[in-house]
Amino acid sequence: MNSAKPTTMQEYFAEFPAEVQQLLERIRASIKAAVPEATETIGYGIPTFKLNGKNLVHFGAFKNHIGFYPTPDGIKEFEQELSQYQNAKGSVQFPLSEPFPMDLILRMTEFRKKKLLEKVK
């Protein structure tokens, strides 16, 4: 295993089995479709999208789940829909054993974009 920390999303994705890589690519594509002007980076060791230099969302793969990090306001806004998942102040865990809620990821990302753009005004 490569001990160097990934510096790109491709390097990060390459560390996981093929089916997880495909899911990570789908998440990435959804976020890019929702916020084409966002930039990709690795932040806190996981894939991160930034908008105007600010963190938009982060996501990462783990043994049994995909972690999605839409910040505390993103979790609060979708509290009811997220109640079926393990979540914390700024994160939610989507089990790999269940259908992946891509639509929810998309809506949380769009919400985060709206919040970041409101702060700029």
UniProtKB/TrEMBL annotation:
Gene3D superfamilies: 3.90.1150.200. Pfam families: DUF1801. Residues 21-109 form the YdhG-like domain. It comes from Hufsiella arboris. It comes from the Bacteria. This is YdhG-like domain-containing protein.
